[in-house]
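User: structure tokens for Histidine phosphatase family protein, please.
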Amino acid sequence: MKVYITRHGESVSNAEGYIAFSYTGLSDKGMVDAKKLGERLAKDGIKIDAVYCSSLFRTLQTIDQIFKGGFKIDPKKVIVTDLVREISRLEFEGQPSTEYYAIRDSSGLDPDDFKCKGGESENDVKRRAAEFKNLIEKSGFENILVITHGHFIGRFNSLFGMKLEHTTGGGLSLLEIEGDKAEVKFWNDTSHLEL
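Assistant: Done. Predicted tokens:
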């Protein structure tokens, strides 16, 4: 199975350095980059059987811009799911990331087990990633596009024992997955954003 992965375009929170709200949208740059990704998918003729998209506003805006860039798929093949959403850090939304990490690091807990009030731990995201992997394995789709978030991408990759560099908003990656093995065909390709 070919799994194309993209992180949503740059959000306003990415640009301003705070933890995003669920309703945080894309920055102007994020809108442009997502549209360029759509242009690339269309130009390269990449065949996609289904798109899995996070339910958060910035990912929904990303898919909208991808479509505006010329990429076409039957809307019935777009599956919006919370399985691929960003880690929830509810009580820290709107605050600088440094505050979250300072409290996490001083908690005495393993960083992967730390969970803020009303939020999730990194291990919770990894469990969601495993559930998503099972879902796509059973789907019968050969080529999928996942529009998601940085934490999810990292935890999904960890299921295959991979620790890859953080992805750029609007960058494109391709994994070929067979069972518990994944081969990276390309990672965080941003050549279409440089045009």
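User: Anything notable?

Assistant: The CA atoms of residues 43 and 71 lie 8 Å apart.
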